[in-house]
Amino acid sequence: VAGSRWLPAMPVNYSKFDHIEDSDDEKPDAKAAALEEQRRQLKEQMEKKLASGAEQEQDPSEEAKAPHQSDRFSYGEADCKKLAHDLLRQCVSKTPSVKVGNGVLSVAKVEKVEGDADMFQVRGEMRHTWDISFKAIWTYQWMGSNFEEGAQRAEGSLSMCEFTDATTLKSDKSPPIIRKAWVDKGGLELPRQKEVEKALGGKPWPPEEGTLLFGMCKALDVYEEELPKQTSKSQRAAKVEREEAAQEDAEEFAAAGGVIVEEVKG
Fold first, then answer.
1. In the CATH scheme, what is the code of domain 70-233?
2. CA-to-CA distance for 208 and 198, rounded, in angstroms?
3. Is pLDDT of 53 > 60?
4. Which parts of the sequence belong to the Activator of Hsp90 ATPase AHSA1-like N-terminal domain (predicted)?
């Protein structure tokens, strides 16, 4: 063009285009991204927990330990108390019967099991302690003198108080407190009543062989032997239940895409 002057071409600085932002339509949703990141983190945490649990199960040193050493939350005081009560009731109810005259003296049922039971560690070993009282209902059954009288029955109670882990069943060093009472003498004559009372045993302590209390002490020996075994068994069962519940929760968590689904009540 006449009268005009050509200007030299200017170089283009492309670096400024690096800071151009996308339009809103192409931007990722910030909330959705944050939620997805949260899900990913939760999923990773759950997978780590499961992997850690599996390693502990495969660790021989853990398997060699008693349940109370490898799982400090596996068993509570309430569980120990209930197990001790149930086990004592079961053992005492199996007290051997005693023959008295033409009848049989036996434990009919065990009721009113009360008191505390606990466990604690001493140098890595689990010890049990208890202070329990219970009442056993006993019966004396015999056949009448003739066919028309048939089977006869008398009934009474035998209470053992302050039965503790320090109680001595085979010596008089620390005997329990024993209380005996008739509930229904069932028409027994006085001489036979005396025979039944003697067959109950208890004085002097320890009970004489052949008495009901002698057999009951044998049953309590079984209780003392079985309590640690039954506690360990219950600990293992409780641990398995918790692990299975945790596994189910993890599977539900993974199936839901890392989202915890809770039931809405109401």
1. 3.15.10.20
2. 10
3. no
4. 78-167
Q: Structural domain boundaries of the chain?
A: 70-233
Instruction: Give the Cα separation of 156 and 150 in Å (integer).
Output: 20
State the DSSP H helix or E strand holding residue 67, giving kind and residue range, or none if neither: helix 67-70
Single out the residue of 97, 47, 60, 49 nearest to residue 214, CA to CA.
97
Q: CB–CB of 249/53 below 8 Å? A: no
Neighbours of 177 (CB within 10 A): 11
CA distance 182 to 23: 96
pLDDT tens digits, residue range 116-133?
Answer: 999 887 777 778 899 999
Please identify which residue in the block is written with the tokens 């051997």: 96
Task: List the alpha helices (DSSP H) in the chain.
Answer: 30-58, 60-64, 67-70, 77-92, 190-200, 212-255
